[in-house]
Amino acid sequence: MATNKDIGGRIKAARIAAGYRRAAEAAEALGVAYPTYAGHENGSRDPKGNIELYSRRFGVSTDWLLTARGAGPKAADGSRPLSPPGKVRLAGRVGAGQVITPFDDEPFEWVEEPADAAPDTVAVEVVGDSGFPAFDEGSLLYYSKLLPPSEMVNKKAVLRTAVGDMYVKILRKGSTDDLWTLQSINSLYPDLVDQVVEWAAPIDWIKPR
To answer: 153 and 196 share a domain?
Structure first.
């Protein structure tokens, strides 16, 4: 269950995304006494009685404020959602054959942010035995930096092919310089030979289930 501090962190994120740089400015615009509003942001007061007001004025759903699920705040250019404090977006799940099913539509799911995470860090979750023996079911694989495949040869990587399919595989050289073999981590699944790879991302951190 979310604590008042968790909810307060999301209220602050929504307030900033809505264009209120200072808490006092938001409190005045909302007609809420500053000590009350500040207590809602820092978690020292229960904010639930004002959640509908904050949801409406900051342009986020009440579900997002209370649980981090649902429609959250947008970045200033509208390009991507702002993550709740201490969270990164769950970008997909890794299933049979180490195929990633991406999550591109709202409502987004959020998972724990690693220490010192890069700004664009996202995670994928391993389902079933798809990552055995390297990754257990339920493990979270975090990645951020998208590199040319030539920089990830013989390494485990999250990668995307030229046709838009995503995998977690070991990247091997193919029959020519611009083709790659995607070696399966679980030997029960066949390798994918001579694929065109758009990018490959090193796995920055693994959180076991």
So the answer is: yes
Which residues, at least 6 apart from 205, have a Cβ–Cβ distance to it below 8 Å?
Answer: 114, 117, 142
Rounded Cα distance, 67 and 24, in Å: 25
Residues 47, 15 contacting (CB under 8 angstroms) = no
Q: Cα(88)–Cα(109) distance, rounded to whole angstroms?
A: 9
pLDDT in tens, 151-202: 999 999 999 998 889 999 999 999 999 999 999 999 889 999 999 999 999 9
For residues 118 and 203, membership in a common domain is answered with yes
Please give the structure tokens belonging to residue 24. Answer: 């006092």
Output the six-digit token pair for 140: 């979270």
**Residues 109, 28 share a domain:** no
pTM: 0.64
Candidates 68, 120, 64, 123; CA nearest to 91 is: 123
Q: Report the C-alpha gap between 125 and 118 in whole angstroms.
A: 18
Nearest partner of 194 among 202, 183, 205, 204, judged by Cα:
183
CB atoms under 10 Å from CB of 27, counted, come to 20
Domain span at 18: 4-67
Measured CA to CA, the distance from residue 72 to residue 51 in angstroms comes to 13
